[in-house]
Amino acid sequence: MKQPLFTGTGVALITPFRRGQETVDFTKLEALIEHIVASGVDYIVALGTTSEAATLTDSERAAVQEFIVETVNGRIPIMLGLGGNNTLALTETISRTNFEGISGLLSVTPFYNKPNQRGIMAHYRIVSETSPVPVVMYNVPGRTGVNITADTALAIAAECPNIIGIKEASGNLMQVMELLRNRPAGFRVISGDDALTYPMLALGADGVISVIANALPKETSDMVRFALKGDYKHALPLHYRLLPLMHAIFDEGNPTGIKALLETQGRITNALRLPLVKASKQLSNKIATLYNEFGA
Q1: What is the rounded CA–CA span in Å between residue 46 and residue 76?
Q2: CATH superfamily, domain at 8-229
Q3: Would you list the DSSP string of 62-91?
Q4: How many CB atoms lie within 10 A of CB 2?
């Protein structure tokens, strides 16, 4: 039986840069995608927060999107990150975007201008009507300054059939439980926090959009698959094995930590674009130690 779209493990893909030039390293990106796909993940998220999309130019974003689509070549679905705090500008961007090879849209809550719940509903209603592919809302109040309440998310789900789920990164398990208890059939609740994925899956969530899976795609996918099957005997040890690294890669922000881990693995050159900077020596050493312990 075919798995429903955007369930299981999605990878919030990083963008490798060349050190010094900080241009996109497409060779390293291709190798990373091939490793991730071969490791059995369920889908990839292109140009999300972890990709540093906010610091890419329009032409770079288009080139990265096209490259990811060509490299994945239909083997797994691709979700595209597109969001903003100007609804009209966002809808114009969606209308200009090439959705060939794209299975869904991940759209973050408007940030900085802090709309109220009615404003959030109006925003997503228009995004839903504009998008040619299914939409997953992204609730991450720690970044945006505003929370999509469970009541609002459920109202949007009931009103907008093209909005098929929510990536939940509020860290509020009470809110998550309200969503899971009252959601309409087929509405996905996806963890947006690696460390909370196991408890969310145990409560009935549908998977994760993961940062750690850039570096450990097989282990993350295995944990999620076990949990989705109700095999907590095998899922829980994997969760606890991954947990120290899950915490460490966020010590100095994202994608600072995951890029340090990927450098430790020899998969990328550790370079970020300002205002983000690479991990401190202390954190890099901590991540390297934890990764060696993980391998052991």
Answers
A1: 12
A2: Aldolase class I (3.20.20.70)
A3: HHHHHHHHHHHTTSS-EEEE---S-HHHHH
A4: 4
Return the half-sphere exposure (C-beta side, CA atoms, 13 A cut-off) of residue 20.
0
d(CA 55, CA 150): 31
pTM, rounded to two decimals: 0.95
Dihedral over Cα of 54, 220, 107, 97: its sign: positive
**Token match 């109006």: residue?**
122
In angstroms, the CA 113 to CA 110 distance is 7
Spatial neighbors of 135 by CB under 8 A, at least 6 apart, are 104, 105, 106, 107, 124, 127, 128, 160, 162, 163, 164
Domain ranges of the chain: 8-229
Phi–psi pair at 230, nearest 5 degrees: 80, 15
One-letter amino acid at 278 equals K
Q: 79: exposed, middle or buried (C-beta count within 10 Å: 0-12, 13-18, 19+)?
A: buried
User: How confident is the model over 134-168, as pLDDT tens digits?
Assistant: 999 999 999 999 999 999 999 999 999 999 999 99
Q: Which residues are catalytic?
A: 138, 167
